[in-house]
Amino acid sequence: MKLVCVQLFLLLLLSVDTLGISAEDSNVDVIIIGAGMSGITAGKTLTANGITNFIILEATDKVGGRIRNSDFAGYEVELGANWVEGVNGEQLNPVWTLAQQVKLRTSLSDFSNLSSNVYTASGPLPPQTDADAITTAQNEYVINLSVNLTANGDDDISVLTAQRSYGSVPSTPVEMVLDYFLYDGEYAEPPRVSSLKNTQPGPTFKNFGEDLYFAADPRGFATIIKPVASYLQSKDGKYVDPRLKLEKVVNKIVYTKEGVTVSTEDGSTYTAKAAILTVSLGVLQSKLIDFQPDLPFWKLEAIFEFDMAIYTKIFLKFPYKFWRTGPGTEFFLYADDSRGYYPIWQHLERELPESNIIFVTVTDDESRKIEQQSNNETLAEIMEVLKSMFGPDIPEAEEILIPRWWSDRLYKGSFSNWPIGVTHHEFAQLQAPIDRLYFAGEHTSALYNGYIHGAYFSGIDAGKDEITGKINLRCTNQTGIRHTEATMAKESQQPKASSQLKVHLIRHAREKL
Ligand SMILES: Cc1cc2nc3c(=O)[nH]c(=O)nc-3n(C[C@H](O)[C@H](O)[C@H](O)COP(=O)(O)OP(=O)(O)OC[C@H]3O[C@@H](n4cnc5c(N)ncnc54)[C@H](O)[C@@H]3O)c2cc1C
Ligand SMILES: *[C@@H]1O[C@H](CO)[C@@H](O)[C@H](O)[C@H]1NC(C)=O
Ligand SMILES: *[C@@H]1O[C@H](CO)[C@@H](O)[C@H](O)[C@H]1NC(C)=O
Ligand SMILES: *[C@@H]1O[C@H](CO)[C@@H](O)[C@H](O)[C@H]1NC(C)=O
Ligand SMILES: *[C@@H]1O[C@H](CO)[C@@H](O)[C@H](O)[C@H]1NC(C)=O
Ligand SMILES: *[C@@H]1O[C@H](CO)[C@@H](O)[C@H](O)[C@H]1NC(C)=O
């Protein structure tokens, strides 16, 4: 059996050669596509297990993917991931460990005074402790209900359904913005869309702790990848290893049981025994990469069922501060009649005290709208909001920065969100390899999808999958479904679709009796 595989593999190489395609590096073992946290971690995992004959193809000119900083008005701001989420709990978040290793500059985010910093179209409100208490009690109920559903093996419902069963849904502008902060602010999609059982309580906060640390480091948040990427760096931390190939946009993947051939837009072709694909869920949902043969229906279904959410931080630079400063003022909310209209605000007094920079966060449809209109139109909308919050005499903004993650063909959104209707069995299809093609990335982490630590764990998982037999035992009969510690931990909490269905059928049968 093994012999046949090797022969087929050689045949593949030969045929590529006779077609006259420049098959550089055709003898590598593994091609990793994407140099974000998951791709870099997958490479480290291979390295640690003695597999060093691999390359990493990355479309942009840098390592880091969705962890990316940019100069804005002379300061470094984070366009993508900004927080180490889940700290000071029972388990240690590996991203927090990395942050310590590089002595990343962070600050603990304190949201406890949020309800005293709510503004409406007619200015600041007095402290809103009541509204906050209502939201908190409702969220506690929502979490309790989720725990009960899971314990009973009941079907999933949306977060909104859970809120309705509490007896009231947020409806005033203030209730809506507090609700937006709690759910959309974290998952970038509204309660109507999000799965109750897979987002409440979030395993991130349950396992790693409730605290969030905001990264504000002149070297950029992506510095945390350096300790993982040591196998690619010179002693002074520069990415010098020729296995890392930047500005290589993969546009075609031919996969068989024996190997893969990966083509890039600049006309290069690479062959290998296996590939690990770490591009975002949004890219998988797009047509950027031509798969040959087409991905099977079960895979496409999983890809299309999961959600790529959009989360946008808009940075503004002013000549001077007109917002509140001092303890308990960092985060503030704008409660508009229209839910999600420039709702979450943050100043950078602690991190960049002299900068006079603030930023506002929008998500979902507002993000889509903003990505499609001019920056001037957005700025005009924002100035109108700020004037209703702080009065007409505030200064004009000097600069604005609007990341466009959704329009960017290399991302097509910000991070994945688990929508109502995707069972854990279906989720496993998102992770499952096909022939010699493996899938990693934030969206393939069953416990921590949407987060940097999810990308990190997925890189380890995909690397391990290859090592534990699937590269060395080519042509083995693959079941396809990945069983890592993380997945198993999740499965022990979450009944599988089949058992859910069984419970449902048994109940149904009982009712009939
Ligand atoms: C605005 C925003 C805010 C966020 N906030 C947080 C936060 O506060 N905390 C947190 O933990 N997480 C946050 N996240 C999520 C976090 O950034 C991601 O979960 C994580 O960085 C994803 O890593 P990854 O390796 O899975 O994917 P990516 O980082 O997307 O890496 C994939 C790589 O593949 C490359 N690529 C894409 N297409 C191709 C192609 N065709 N050929 C070659 N290369 C290609 C991309 O350029 C990219 O470098 C945020 C994300 C965004 C966008
Ligand atoms: C949630 O459950 C806890 C105990 O499990 C209980 O103390 C609390 O009152 C419940 N809260 C709500 C709002 O149901
Ligand atoms: C959860 O189950 C417990 C025990 O059956 C029950 O007391 C509680 O009311 C339930 N909570 C919710 C929110 O369903
Ligand atoms: C809460 O915010 C209000 C309004 O900005 C501020 O006056 C107050 O000092 C803050 N309280 C705490 C405890 O930080
Ligand atoms: C945006 O506004 C600035 C300043 O008012 C102006 O100089 C610029 O031409 C405008 N750009 C567009 C695209 O309208
Ligand atoms: C692969 O596994 C399935 C299920 O265990 C089995 O039915 C099938 O015969 C196997 N195929 C091969 C080629 O071994």
TrEMBL record:
<keyword id="KW-0560">Oxidoreductase</keyword>
<protein>
    <recommendedName>
        <fullName>Amine oxidase domain-containing protein</fullName>
    </recommendedName>
</protein>
<feature type="binding site">
    <location>
        <position position="250"/>
    </location>
    <ligand>
        <name>FAD</name>
    </ligand>
</feature>
<feature type="signal peptide">
    <location>
        <begin position="1"/>
        <end position="20"/>
    </location>
</feature>
<comment type="similarity">
    <text>Belongs to the flavin monoamine oxidase family.</text>
</comment>
<dbReference type="InterPro" id="IPR050281">
    <property type="entry name" value="Flavin_monoamine_oxidase"/>
</dbReference>
<feature type="binding site">
    <location>
        <begin position="58"/>
        <end position="59"/>
    </location>
    <ligand>
        <name>FAD</name>
    </ligand>
</feature>
<keyword id="KW-0732">Signal</keyword>
<dbReference type="InterPro" id="IPR002937">
    <property type="entry name" value="Amino_oxidase"/>
</dbReference>
<dbReference type="GO" id="GO:0006598">
    <property type="term" value="P:polyamine catabolic process"/>
</dbReference>
<comment type="pathway">
    <text>Amine and polyamine degradation; spermine degradation.</text>
</comment>
<feature type="domain" description="Amine oxidase">
    <location>
        <begin position="37"/>
        <end position="462"/>
    </location>
</feature>
<feature type="binding site">
    <location>
        <position position="38"/>
    </location>
    <ligand>
        <name>FAD</name>
    </ligand>
</feature>
<dbReference type="InterPro" id="IPR001613">
    <property type="entry name" value="Flavin_amine_oxidase"/>
</dbReference>
<dbReference type="GO" id="GO:0046592">
    <property type="term" value="F:polyamine oxidase activity"/>
</dbReference>
<keyword id="KW-0274">FAD</keyword>
<dbReference type="Pfam" id="PF01593">
    <property type="entry name" value="Amino_oxidase"/>
</dbReference>
<dbReference type="InterPro" id="IPR036188">
    <property type="entry name" value="FAD/NAD-bd_sf"/>
</dbReference>
<dbReference type="GO" id="GO:0050660">
    <property type="term" value="F:flavin adenine dinucleotide binding"/>
</dbReference>
<keyword id="KW-0285">Flavoprotein</keyword>
